[in-house]
Amino acid sequence: MDQLVIRGGRPLAGTVTASGAKNAALPLMASCLLTSEPLRLENVPRLMDVRTMARLLRHVGAEVTEEGPASLRLQAEAPGCPEAPYDLVKTMRASVLVLGPLVARLGRARVSLPGGCAIGPRPINLHLMGLERLGARIRLSHGYVEAETDGLTGARIAFDLQTVTGTENLMMAAALARGTTTLEHAACEPEVADLASLLNAMGAKIEGAGSATITIHGVPALRGATHRTIPDRIETGTLAVAAAITGGTVTIEECRPVHLEAVLVKLEESGAALTTGPGTLTVRGASRSRAVNVRTQPFPGFATDMQAQMMALMAVASGRSVITEAVFENRFMHVNELLRMGADITTAGNTAVVQGVPGLLGAPVMATDLRASASLVLAALAARGTTTVSRIYHLDRGYEALEEKLRLLGADIERVKA
Ligand code: EPZ
């Protein structure tokens, strides 16, 4: 397994381009199952989860071909095998995003239950509740969800909590249902709105995406379309923290600062100077950040996917910060590894108290999940000495060539093939 070797202590400087959003690309790709016509997606990031989704779609019977460095052509002319097998779903929970489109297009689907992952049990009960409301019959057998219907009918679906892929799955299913569906207390993430804009380009009639109430007027069929994926707000936030934690100055181009407002507010509160332009964000890190408190929330609140990265910054900030993970049950896997680098963090339930220390020390550390690995890379950039991050396949799931982007900014970082 590859490792990253990082020698810390260098302020980053320069300009880097944000890639397309992983969490937009995955539902956008799944929506190819809703039509027999070709879909063209641009600005698709080249990373592991996108390759896994492509494998899954091919398994189901869609054609997925690369048309350029960041462009995909997808066509599900006649999907034959409406099944998402365990060996694919267990590596990527977002595989569940084929469930709604398959039931809507073919009237049946067999999708492996995702199982837990490093950050918590992550059930899909709300996805299934919504499909049942639309008229699908759901059966659980041998670790698989089996869904079937003679045709979906629009319904009112109210979520008790906001689920991003649950909202996306049901928006896709409802697009081909007979009649109107309303999703109440839907997720408001930009990736949901991006999916709705593709579906509407395909002929769907969706209003309110990006707000907590989404209305979908079902249509008999959808056509092909071309769509450019929005920039990755979590990669943008991660690069912004890299500037802050090294006390450097970094400009990120082709990004959407408005998609990570709550994170930028916290970065400014901690002492970074930010300037935004149309599609650009410049971050000037303070010589030493100030401690700030963070509580993760669904969008537009502070993104849970940025919690681990912010904790790395707080580990070397002056003062004490309280970080509360209010979205996932167990998203502190990075804490133990940060402690090994000399951080002073105590956790109780879903709250971590971080006492900033003057500096961290490089050490061998292990990645446990996607954003935890980003947190360790950030800590290593600021640490004195050398850090080796192992199991970086976690990082490769969600970041496109992060070490190359950081090296472009002056970081002393290299990938060592195991
Ligand atoms: C999406 O996951 C993202 N993944 C996650 O990003 C992100 O952390 C998460 O939303 C929250 O923002 C993709 O978009 C592919 P949820 P998702 O359903 O949809 C509970 C990353 O690092 N829940 O919004 O799976 C669930 O347990 C990844 O890029 C139910 O109880 O998350 C969690 O506590 C990690 N029942 C909360 O809701 C359900 O049916 C939010 O989960 C569904 C969810």
Task: Give keywords.
4-stranded mixed beta sheet, alpha/beta, 14 helices, about 25% strand
Can you describe this structure in just a few lines?
The protein has 418 residues and is α/β, with parallel strands linked by helices. 32% of the residues lie in helices and 26% in strands.
Describe the protein's architecture and organization.
This protein has 14 helices and 24 strands. The protein has helices at residues 22-30, 48-60, 86-89, 99-106, 125-133, 164-175, 190-201, 233-246, 261-269, 307-315, 333-340, 370-382, 393-398, 402-408; strands spanning 3-7, 13-17, 39-42, 63-68, 71-75, 83-84, 108-112, 137-141, 144-148, 156-158, 180-184, 205-207, 213-217, 225-228, 249-253, 273-277, 280-284, 294-295, 320-324, 344-348, 351-355, 364-366, 386-390, 412-416. Strands 22-23-1-24 form a four-stranded mixed sheet, covered by helices on one side. α6 (164-175) runs parallel beside α7 (190-201) and α10 runs parallel beside α12 (370-382). It is elongated, with a radius of gyration of 21 Å. The structure holds ligand EPZ. Ligand EPZ is lined by residues 22-23, 26, 93-94, 120, 122-127, 161, 163-166, 187, 191, 304-305, 327-328, 370-371, 398.
